[in-house]
Structures are given as structure tokens and as C-alpha cells.
Amino acid sequence: MKLFDHPNKKFMSRFERYEPFIQDYTQMNTLDACDRKYFYRMVLGRAPKRTNFQVVLDFGKAYHKFREVLERSSQSGLNEMSSLGAGIEAALSVELDVPPRGSKFEYLDKAKLLAACKVAFIWWQQEKKQGTKKVIAIEQPFNVMLPDGSFIGGRADQIIDWNGKRYGRDFKCSSKTPEYFQKGIDPNDQCVRYTVGESEISGERVVGIIFEALFHSNTGKTRIEPFLSERTDSQLAIWLAEKVHINEQLKLNREKDIWPMRTHNCAWCDYIKVCRASSERAQMGILEMDYNLKPWNHENVDQEVVE
Ligand code: SF4
């Protein structure tokens, strides 16, 4: 995997650097949260041994496996019930973390996962019966060069044709309300990034992304709701110019080897004990002791995502 050069190592200079040259949504999301967090996770490749939301990540991964295998099995000629069986087997192969007692995500267990698969299967059956959406690609990776020679990458859950237009489709799991979820899809970096990337790999302008959200909670019913998020050519052009600008800022971080602490989200951050240590030496000790060396690679869809 191609990495960025760091010829001017000053901060934590004893550590190797693994910053991926191809930038995906999770990398940029991490940078948005905090430059220092980006440095720990994406440059030094250090991942928490256990995140506060491990079971949420595991549940999302299992649900994605289900959707992927269900569709793939059906496209390979298996009947609906056999496709369902293959999907459930794939979902159950993902181990779910057991959250600490009293955690608000204690309800995310195998029974809840099976309930989610059942709801999704019925949704999927109805869509197949209607026949208005055609899935043309599943789990399709993309790497696209930007005007400054940098690359963005990602992996499309699905690319589909619907009403004579092409869309990306992204499966989400959420414990929030649909109203709250909707607020997060515009503006949304992933939506534009995937619209650009999926247009490139499918050879046709993708109009936008359909976020198909599975809502779960410890009290309410599990249900699915789709949210359409389209982007115009002018929005894509502005996004591209902003990405080039952010790359300039990142280049400056690299050149000076300064990774500013953005403290707005510290209370929820998995790296807070590193940042609280009183010296660079102590911070390095904590990163070595309490974090795994797990360099980021966007093509490895099974890696843990620390949001
Ligand atoms: S604890 Fe705060 S400053 Fe440190 S990495 Fe996390 S968000 Fe950034």
C-alpha cells in the first residue's frame, strides 16, 4: 500500500508512520474530528484495543455482511430462502462484543441481529417484487484521482439503477431517530465522495446516494427507512476544490510535523488518556502499551472503524 512520506519527523519521531496515500471517508472523518486523532490513528496506525462502541461497530459489520451475502447469493442463482440462509450464516459469523453491564447498547445481541436480518429480508423481498431497482455492483472498491494528484478511495455497498438514473446505496444502522439521522446526510462528506467515486467506476454520473437506514433501539421496533441525498455538478465542483484545500493544510501538518489538538470532542474520544499524559514520552508509552499497531487500509472492510 502506498504511503505518504514524512521526511521531517519531529513529534514522536521514534514511531514508524503509515499514513495511506489513498484517502477514504473514515480518514477524512477522523481529520474533521481532530488533527491529533488523525495523527494517532491514520499516521501512526495506532488503534484502541477496545473502543467504547465496539458492539455498535460489530453489529453494523454483521448487518453489512448479511446484506452483501443476501444480494450476492440471489444474483448467483440461489432461491430466496437459500439466499436468506447464506446471509444469516455470514452475519452470525461476526462476533458481537459484549458491552459493559449497564451500557445503553446492551440490547445489541444475536437476537437483535436476527430481528434486523428478518426486517431487511422482508424489505429486500418487497423491492425484488416491485422490480424498480436493479443492483449493478456489490461492495465495489474505487480509487479516484483529484485535480491535485491526490487520491480518494472507498467501497460502495451497492450501485443501483432506479427510474432511469444511477445511484449509490449505502446501508446504515442507527440507534437515533429518523429525524436526527436525516440531519446528518446533507451536508455529508461521504455522500459527495461516494457520488464522485461511484460515477467514476460505473462510467455514468451517479446522481447521489440512497442511505438505507436500519433503525434499532432497546424499546422500539427495528425498521428500515431510505433517505435520498442527491448532489448537483456545482456541489461536486465545490467539494473537489475544498478537498484540494484540505490536502494543502494536511501537507503543512506533515511539513511542520504539527498535529493540532481540536478539543471539541475530547470527552467521547478513545485517545483521551494519551492526550492527558503530561509529556510526549508518556504519550508514546501509552500508545505502545494500550493501543494496537493496526495501520489503516480502506480496502480492508473488516477492520475496526473508530469514529
Ligand atoms: S482527546 Fe481530544 S485532542 Fe486528543 S485526540 Fe481526542 S479529540 Fe483530539
**Count of DSSP H/I helices:** 10
Number of strands: 8
What do the pLDDT scores average to? 94
Structural class: alpha/beta
Q: How far apart are the termini? A: 23 Å
| Biggest β-sheet strands, sense, barrel | 6 strands, mixed
| Shape type | globular
Low-confidence runs of at least 5 consecutive residues: 302-307
What proportion strand?
15-25%
Give the helix level as a range of percent.
40-55%
Notable traits:
two-stranded antiparallel ribbon, six-stranded mixed β-sheet, disordered C terminus, 307 residues, binds iron/sulfur cluster, 10 helices, alpha/beta
Any overview of this molecule?
The protein has 307 residues and is α/β, with parallel strands linked by helices. Among the domains are: 28-51 and 241-293, no CATH class; 52-131, no CATH class. Helix content is 44%, strand content 20%. The chain is built from 10 helices and 8 strands. The protein has helices spanning 25-33, 35-43, 54-75, 80-92, 110-130, 178-183, 189-202, 233-256, 272-276, 280-290, and strands spanning 22-23, 46-48, 133-145, 151-162, 165-174, 206-215, 223-230, 291-293. Strands 1, 3, 4, 5, 6 and 7 form a 6-stranded mixed sheet that branches. Helix 1 packs antiparallel against helix 2 (35-43). The longest helix has 24 residues, at 233-256. The two termini are 23 Å apart. Mean pLDDT is 94; it is low at 302-307. Bound molecules: iron/sulfur cluster (SF4). The site of iron/sulfur cluster has 12 residues, from helix 2 and helix 9.
